[in-house]
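User: Quick sanity check before I run a bigger batch. Here is a single chain. Can you write out its predicted 3D structure?
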Amino acid sequence: MVSAIQGFAASAQGAMVTDVEGRTYLDFATGISVMNVGHAHPRVVEAIIEQARRLVHSGAPVMMPEGYVRLARRLCEITPGSFEKKALLVNSGAEAIENAVKIVRQATGRPAIISFHNSFHGRTLMTMSLTGKVNPYRQNFGPYAPEVYLAPYPYEYQRPSGMAAESLGGACVEAVAELFRTTVPAERVAGILVEPVQGEGGFVVPPPDFLPRLRDLCVTAQVPLIVDEVQSGFGRTGRLFASEHWGIEPDLITMAKSLGGGLPMAAVVGRAELMDATAPGGLGGTFGGNPVACAAALAVIEVMLEERLPERAQRLGARALERLRAFQDRFPFMGEVRGLGAMLAVELVLDRATREPAAALTAQVLHAAHERGLLLLKAGLYDNVIRLLFPLTLGEDELDRGLDLLEQSLAEVGATASVPA
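Assistant: Done. Predicted structure follows.
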């Protein structure tokens, strides 16, 4: 259902979207982190057109298109991990997660999956069950998939009262170990699924020790680690994959969104011995590895590397972060500014002392920004986080203009907001 403030997109180029009435918008949403290389990047468009002239679809289970093999090989080359890998191509992030779960269950012979509070992994039955946020994702869609267990994720800004920030990462890993002791033994756990930076949860960046300690726990317990890079991957955080910031090598990585440059494309990449455990026919689908989508993805990867977009994400992110922190000094309802690379967020609160979420204020800021021609998205457990997902190809002048529009929107809402200084 389309809300009153949303228009209908007609065309897009670079960081700009034009609606059917001819109004233009700066895009700081990028189709929910899909257009990291920008709209209509010439090399991606050229690859799509060239492939569409040759072959649109053959069906990988019938006759695998050669682009499937080239893309699978390329993904194995660029993902973290010094071990032998294989790749499976599918259509969406949720489908990638579903297949990762199937892979580790088949490989280990175990049923249970552990994920984390405040997470998001998709809207299918399994991925909804793995998601750690009720509204709007779970609603009344149950019963949910069995053998799913959730543990706390280290959310520093909203950490438990009395807990020191430096203790949070270790406490959350210990909570997983406690699950092994009290609820589901490690011998029954097929895999642990984690976002390196929580996406829909509000761009929550974990403490430095969390992911390395979780990796160590997985090794000790002999439980595969699945890292969900659907939103954080492909340059968004300043590395090609966010996992690289912590030097961890996941057993499986799921990816989607910006991989396809706007076309439906997702993948599971991981240890060959895990990927090979499933008998032929157990994974895949009619459209997985579509040749046009494969061509787009191969072009995206080369653009990412040749134009050094992860490094550009670091520079743009640092520039934006400086501006956002200046806004924070001005607007008392900006509780926290956080992020990694160009994956940035602002959490709005009614009171900085209590950190009470300000969902209504957040909605007002997004509406005000939309009216000024800036596309933004909300996120977070309480819908009180504004996330910035600008294309990594936009110019510094476009970034500054977008931040100006955000500042104006914050000022408009702040003029009527009753928030303690």
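The chain is about 35% helix and 20% strand.

User: Great, the batch can go ahead then.
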